[in-house]
Amino acid sequence: MTTTETPASPASAGHGEVNYLNHEYGIKSWLLTLDHKRIGILYLITTTMFFALGGLFAGLIRLELMTPEGDLFQADTYNKLFTMHGVAMIFFFLIPSVPAVLGNFVLPLMIGAKDVAFPRLNLLSWYCYITGGTLASFAIVAGGVDTGWTFYTPYSSTYSTGFVSVALMGVFINGFSSILTGVNFLTTVHKMRAPGMTWFRLPLFIWAHYATSLMMILGTPVVAITLLLVALENMFGLGIFNPELGGDPILMQHLFWFYSHPAVYIMIVPGFGVISEVIACFSRKAIFGYSFVAFSSLAIALLGFLVWGHHMFTTGQSIYAGMVFSFITFFIAVPTAVKIFNWTATMYRGSIDLKSPLMYALGFIGLFLIGGLTGTFLSTLAMDIHLHDTYFVVSHFHYVMVGGMVMAYLSGLHFWWPKMMGRMYNEAWAMTGAVLIFLGFNLTFFPQFVLGYLGMPRRYHVYPEEFQILHVASTGGATVLGLGYMVLFVCLVWSLFKGAKAGPNPWTAKGLEWEIESPPTPHNFHETPIVTSEPYAYEEEDVLLADKGSH
Amino acid sequence: MSKTASHHPALQHYFDDLKQQHGAATMGMWAFLAQEIMFFGGLFAGYTVYRYKYFNAFVEGSNLLPIAWGGLNTVILIASSFTVAMAVRCAQQGLHRSVFNWFMATMVLGLGFLGVKAIEYSHKYHDHLIPGLNFQWDGPMAGPMKIFFSFYFVMTGMHALHMIIGVGLMLWLIPKIRAEKFGPQYYSPIENFGLYWHFVDIVWIFLFPLLYLIGRHL
Amino acid sequence: MSAHAPDHSHQGEHGQHEPHIVPMRVYFSVISCLFIFTAITVAVGFLELGPLNTPVALAIAIFKASLVVLFFMHVRYNTPLMWVFAGSGFFWLLILFALTMQDYVSRGWDDQGIPFLIQ
Questions:
Q1: Termini Cα distance of chain B
Q2: Chains interfacing with A (3 or more CB pairs < 8 Å)
Q3: Contacts of A327 (CB under 8 A, 6+ apart)
Q4: Which of A408, B105, B138, C14 is found 20 to 30 A from C8 (Cα to Cα)?
Q5: For residue range A294-347, what is the model confidence (pLDDT) as tens digits?
Q6: pLDDT in tens, B23-70
Q7: Looking at residue B126, which CATH number applies to its domain?
Q8: Is residue A3 exposed (0-12), middle (13-18) or buried (19+ Cβ within 10 Å)?
Q9: Cα A162 from Cα A145, distance rounded (Å)
């Protein structure tokens, strides 16, 4: 790229400041950009679109479930709705959002790099995402997919309805976006760190993304080949998953969950990284037990690959295999608990500043704790026989995915928004959004635990009348939740036009990304930074400030 | 940014020096290859399950594959791995002409492999052994036989697709080799192509005994 | 073959990449080994080894693949980190195989009785 680069010296700061947003204009400068920051923004826009699409489907599902009868949609339509809700949310929002939006934007800044290691692959990953998303959207418009987001055979093979293959190809191509992001981050962390940025000076956000990249690289290809096999089975009748020919549909589930269970951690572990940053900053303290938190991410990355069979306790998997998977699953709770304990220990006796990012982070800790603990119920073999495929499971993973991951994403978005856009949002409105989302979320999903325990199965659009009160509560909660997202959206968009200038470091946070302008210049750093201090050195500085203030 | 070192034309602005750039390129490629291992690994896992379940059908199917063609392809592919290793070695020494020659040899061997594969596929077509196209098996174990041939075609087909991509990469690299863009200071694209090609070779090293040599003694 | 590589004047300058050039005889030994073991694997395929046929075929394949990885792909001459990168894919593959197969191997146990717990 040979743009005539004006050396933006910090001294000439004023109205004519050059940053990554204004140094080039025009649609082409965005669609062909190799700048990790602009690619992050592209992902921000597109993942938000898929979030809105998935949210729309969720709204329609909740609307149908207001009444026990199936009066709004037919059974087929309902099947398509929950499938497309899952596909849009999981493959096109949850998996890419934190790594591809926040990770892309701040990961190179945090380690003092000018860009990621492979900017072209980074752009290619966005195009994979867009192509996959377009194919999946086409499948939705052309007639929908009704297999559930898991694409289980034989729903997706023997009994498939036409557009399954298109959706499968969409998810397949989207997988490469994830793989390329993983390859990029892994190499960037290894090779692009600034002088002095040793492994144990890395922010925990980086450790989390490192672990996530490992899972993306080693897991995603397995689901890619699995979905390809299902598509081939669908088109050519290979028989690999067809019991009539001696094939085994359970094999598809094994291969699918080999990726898709770690995928849960691909979604949540980057969120853990965000929470570590936010908790440290707004408690003005170094993270308690830094190396434990760092290594627990890696432990989750490894253990996450050993437990997938707990999705298959009732499917015909051997009971002995089930026992092994159940046993290993409990171990996942250990590194996860290490994180939760260390975050709360970090906050203990910190000088807490309750701003909106911390509000979301606190919401995260509470909701994720419920999600994680109900996970241990489900990993108990006998208990799962009762709860499998009920609303208990639905509620459990929404507590992890929405209560955990989405809250962490929003926390990070609020935290780095001033850095990304150079503007502050209105704190009161942001708080209102956070509170509405927290309340709405609990009202939506807590009743579903009760429903599931009482025996309401998932994926049905009619149900016995005695469940109606809980379903109505849930739909009411979804309304509040949707309202919360609206408030948040308006608040953030408003800030783009009317927000006050943020300045380089509105939170007086630690980290290389806060030492440069907001928004950053196209090449991030005027000169390569040299790191001399430990991460999260909040206490030292605050002691200094206090000393100055007292004299 | 303000490096005094001589500025190599291939050095990207976001790297400090060529050493860092080369290290990143190699590491990225290995990460990508780890991904490839798992991609083929999913197929091998499925293969293992059915080989365990339907060993007899797999023996019978394997005996229908011609060892001569498979063995010839193994030899071709190993030879091409050697030629590409030589190409990388010459690139490291800046021997532009030799890099080109070794690349052409690799290309010829790669196309030879694909030619043999095409002959084998056409034989399978005549024998009505292609699932989804014209599979017919009247003997016992028709279902498991079909599964064996499904794996045969998906695995070798996916391998052949990687070969075709490799040939495409060579076509993309050859003009750059002619323009003498690579030398001791900068040869990552050649080296990474070599890594890719060796990986494809390794997949075949496993595919050959697992598909062609099951229960030959029975 | 044309003349020798031009002598580069990069003495003492840091940040230059120094390629590690593997001697020709290593490449020739490796390829000879690969050819020989291809012949061996075909020959062994026709021998009656009882349950050992598959393990032997796999062992030969693993040996051949290791030669390619170590010498042609230069892992032998690389940093320990590269060994980890090269090994991780195979390690994860092992996880996939082991935990998938434990299901299929133990599926029949309910009917036949667990092999190690004769009822």
A1: 68
A2: B, C
A3: none
A4: B105
A5: 999 999 999 999 999 999 999 889 989 999 999 999 999 999 999 999 999 999
A6: 999 999 999 999 999 999 999 999 999 999 999 999 999 999 999 999
A7: 1.20.120.80
A8: exposed
A9: 8
Gap between the Cα atoms of B102 and B79, Å rounded = 11
**How far is residue A509's CA from residue A49's CA, in Å, rounded to a whole number?**
30
- Structural domains counted in chain B: 1
Range of the domain at B170: 18-212
User: For residue B1, is pLDDT > 70?
Assistant: no
User: Which candidate, A299, A442, A286, places its Cα nearest to that of A363?
Assistant: A442
Neighbours of A526 (CB within 10 A): 14
DSSP conformation letters of B55-92: HHHHHHHHTTS-HHHHHHHHHHHHHHHHHHHHHHHHHH
- From the list B15, B24, B146, the residue facing A239 with the nearest CB is B146
Q: Is B14 on the interface with A (CB under 8 A)?
A: yes
B66 touching C (Cβ < 8 Å): no
- Please name each of the domains of chain A with its CATH number: 34-550 (1.20.210.10)
Reduced to 3 states, what is the DSSP secondary structure of residue A457?
A: strand
Backbone φ, ψ for residue A523 (5° rounding): -105, 20
Chain A interface mutation, best of B32, B35, B152, highest count of A Cβ atoms under 10 Å: B35
A216 is written with which tokens?
């993306």
Tell me the CA distances in angstroms from A266 to A46, A215, A331, A409, A527, one per residue in order.
Answer: 19, 7, 18, 13, 33
Q: Is residue B38 part of a domain?
A: yes
Domain-located, residue B99: yes
Residue B118 falls within a domain, yes or no? Answer: yes
Helix (H, G, I), strand (E, B) or coil at A390: strand
